[in-house]
Sequence to fold (707 residues):
Amino acid sequence: MNKNTFFNRELSWIEFNARVLYQACRTDLPLLERIQFLSIVTSNFNEFFQVRVASIKRMQKIDSRKKDISGYTPTTLLKQISVRAHEVVNQKNKCLQEELFPLLEKEGYVYVKPENFTPEQQNFCQREFNSNILPLLTPLRTDTDVFPRISNLQYHAAFLLKPIQDIKPMNNEFITREGKQAIAFVQIPTGISRIVWLPGHTKAKQFTLVDNLILQYGTQLFPGFEVKQSMLFNVIRDADFAVDEDAGPNFIEAMEEVLVQRQSSFAVRLNCNNSSAEIKKFLMKNLGLNSDDVYECDELIDPGCLLEIGKLEDTSRLKFESWEHFYPKSLPEDKPYWDTLKQHDVLLHVPYESYNPVVKFISDAADDPDVISIKMTLYRTGNDSPIISALKKAAQNGKQVTVLVELKARFDEERNIGWANELENAGVIVIQGIVNLKVHAKILMIIRKEDKAIRRYVHLATGNYNPKTAKLYSDMSIFTANPLIANDATMFFNIVTGYSALQSMKALSMAPVNIKSNIISMIQREIRMSSKANPGLIIAKMNSLTHEEVIAALYDASRAGVKVILNVRGICMLVPGVKGMSENIQVISIVDRYLEHERIFYFKNGGQSEIYLSSADWMNRNLDRRIELMFPILDPAIFNEIKECLDTYVKSDMNTHQLRSDGTWLPRKPITGHGICRAQEVIYKKYKKIAEKKATPKIQFQVRRKG
Fold:
């Protein structure tokens, strides 16, 4: 298959961020939410360059002529990435400068550059710098034999220095060997707020940045020198390191070594403001970067620091309307869930519904004298996790607690190492992942002794066990006591924590064993059962679609007349709408206030419809190189609820883009006969209505009788 058959993965990823940026440029969205979208683009690009671009640069050195499945060599791909990424970044900067800064000022929050400080503000900033910033700064000279270490992602101020005649600096610091001008770096402190609020006599709140104070008053660091030019910058470095999987008992030490290497690996990208061409040229030369690797801006490299404004009083008008996280109607708030789950499964749909039931589920188990054991996987769980606290308490209460902590969760490695050690110290049995595979499955099993028998309660999810992201990410999970799923859950934990040979599961599918083959088999089944009179239907929602075998199977389905509707938030390598290949496939993408994160797969199956939830996207890494789970929806009520949700996404035309066969994403036009539909709002209002109905007090009439 050639490049007309597959879009390039990296370029498709950039287009996802263009859709995020589209939200930032929408004038109908609240101001701070627009800034939030800009911040997301910045953060996403940082990770993209650390991992994906670094990997391509490495491949370029190994084999510059090898083409990927979309037809690009590393060299041509890097050029295309640079062109499109620069377009997106330039649009981001333009949005900030021309739209968002003026809107902030209109709302009473004025950004002031040092050259516009009033005398009062100059005095205030000088005192602030001397008292609270200067003691934190460490200037680094650059004319030594070893170029100074510039840590990954850390912001620095750079100063071009020229000696003042007739003044000899102490110890000849910062004088080059030739006695000419020199360049020095100063890292911007990370432990203090980036925003500095300024005094003033206007109603508007005026502010500047710590960065500006360092650039303005940093001359004090270099007595005997004149600062000719200055510049703010940060460096993005390669973070695509593989840990030594054969490290055995020294695996944590090997992982910690990887974390250290990230800080000084080869440079991939330079972000800077445009205040000094000379300093930029100097950095490019010493970091081994070319013009394609440099991204300039007028002011803020990362507009995320402006989100601090949202912590001030009276800023709610600049944010989305507050949406409540409702407690699920099917679960009791004041007692454990055991009796409820014996009767039926329960669906939890966050963030529309509260994540508290998951925490309560584990906390109740920790305190319940009849609970014998708790087993679960942890991939990303965040800081100050109540789940970690509940697991520790369970172990201290004498439960057998087994937790598989994935230490290789990228950019969460350090945190997970800390959790692993903390859990182990509390008496938890900790499994530090599996050699050569990441454990990305989300599963929890509680084993309880009831009436002289053992009953197992299982929680399966599409998203991480992280209460904080559960307020921002849209995910689904089920609580169940179904013996079929419980038996498979038992087998799963035996496989990943011990020496159990692979066994055939009846309900669950597991990657890299059989999720991919089962998905392809269900696509092929849809082809067999499809006819002109009764065409097949596949609706799949996921974060990314890149697996070539799955895409090929979807093309076959389209050729057979099967209707395929794909809701892909991020990367999509499938090319829709091509006659003779994919004319029956449509691809949409929704970017809204919540990050779409569920993986939902629906197959019509000739009228015997099936729905599956999964931790896995249809990507090579998920289906071939990770431990993942896919689980069926067996409860009819939950089945209908999820299908209704899928149908809502299919109808969505607000905050929704549709992919064309040329690779462009266009805002979706309203669908005839449906009216305007914003999927997330429709789903929220549904849960709100359910909660209001649940909260409505029963009216009792007092009957007056004749005595």
Summary: Residues 163 and 179 are 8 Å apart (CA to CA). The two ends are 90 Å apart (CA to CA).
